[in-house]
Amino acid sequence: MKREVLPPRPVSRGPLRKSARRRGWVRRRSAHAPLYLDVAIQTVWAYVRAIWRMLVQWPLEQCYRVTYAVFLSPTSHRIVLRMFMLCALHFTCMGLALLAFGAFYYAWVPKVALSKDVWLQYGEGAPWADVRLDATPSDALVWQKEARQPMFDVDLPYDVSLDLRIPVNRVNVDMGNFMVDMSLRTHDGTVLYESHRPVLLVPDPLFLRWTSRMSRMLWKPVLSEPVAPTQLVRVPLLRRIVPHASPIDSGPAVFRQKGYLASQAHVRIGLTTHQNVILPDQPLPLALHPSVVQIEHATLRFEAYLSGAAYLLYAYPVFSLASFLVVFSSIEFGVAVTIWLVSCAYFSWIA
């Protein structure tokens, strides 16, 4: 007999689900409950608003408050006006101090370094040159012997030297010692100072000469100057002389009345040109032939000897400027503050 298979009986979960809801295990989903995406978006926007407030809104509010407190409030107006007046007074004092320093420097410090080119004349005997000591840049007429514009300051001592640029060749090296003669004269030919100095050309080592020659060939045109190396020799001639003096106590009558001014310089370079010079150890006269020194360029230099305030202004200009600004500005500021206090006291007394 065939057995009949019955379908499984459905299990009813109604009472179990109802009891779970009562106990709070299962919560009913509301139709208005926010989704997870909405919660994330709200969180991101909250962070963005917080960052905006912290980085943009709050600094702008603080700047506005400070700007209003500084520029728009009556108290700030008074403070700013006083600060502006104080700064204007300070810069005015500094400008006047700078102008005063420039005026004092121009009045006290003379032109220290003076120079004149020496154009040597070659002919019979040693080369020589007459240099006109005139501050005018243009050339003077032939019959004008006096200086049109004095080159030197009155009663100021100078050091005189002669710069010689000499080619290092066989003629100059074999010559040995030669003499440099220089004399300062007035316009009528009266000799004021004269000097005689020996000069010896000592050539540089061969390596240095060839290095100098190669550098001149590489960095300068070859045809513009001689290829042979040159040597600069500075010959000190006179020390602390006064080329332009006021009336003096001793000397010729003209100098005692009017003083003197050196308007010409006579320069002579080379060996002695005297003939028939008898040496002590030789019975026969020895004739010295005038050897000619080959010189590329010569410059006569005058350097002023300064002392006192002029020396400080010239030797230490930065220190002098700082000291002058401090002292002068302090005096000006003190005078201005005193006038301000007196005026305030006067107007308060009137009121």
Automatic annotation (TrEMBL):
Keywords: Endoplasmic reticulum, Lipid metabolism, Membrane, Transmembrane, Transmembrane helix. One of its GO terms (biological process) is lipid droplet formation. The chain crosses the membrane at residues 83-108, 304-327, 333-350. The keyword Transmembrane helix applies. GO terms for cellular component: endoplasmic reticulum membrane. It is a multi-pass membrane protein. It is found in: Endoplasmic reticulum membrane. It comes from the Eukaryota. PANTHER family: BERNARDINELLI-SEIP CONGENITAL LIPODYSTROPHY 2 HOMOLOG BSCL2 PROTEIN (PTHR21212), SEIPIN (PTHR21212:SF0). This is Seipin.
